[in-house]
Design brief:
Blueprint lengths: L2 E9 L12 E5 L10 H15 L12 E6 L6 E7 L3
Antiparallel strand pairs: 1-2, 1-4, 3-4
Length: 87
């Protein structure tokens, strides 16, 4: 099963989930991460997880099997990176 790492890259100002840069979440396939994650943030992350799971690559990224600068819908105060770890 394909595995994903979701990493908090940036936090500016208040985050209701108290995320800090470097926090990591892991998911398999199209399942939600193994630990609780903010629903608003996951609305942004899940389409990228689905794309990577389906074989998409992002050739403009340093790692084509990752997508960076995915911002929380709360004014972009928190940004994430999702990476396909294998597959």
């Amino acid at each position: 099963m394909k595995k994903f790492e979701i990493e908090v890259k940036k936090v500016e100002g208040y985050c209701s989930c108290d995320y800090t840069p470097g926090d990591k979440f892991y998911a398999e396939g199209l399942k939600t991460p193994s630990r609780a994650i903010c629903g608003g943030a996951y609305m942004v992350l899940f389409p990228m997880q689905t794309a990577l799971h389906s074989g998409s690559v992002f050739n403009f990224e340093d790692n084509p099997k990752s997508k960076t600068k995915l911002s929380c819908p709360d004014d972009g105060k928190v940004s994430f990176k999702i990476t396909l770890l294998d597959g």
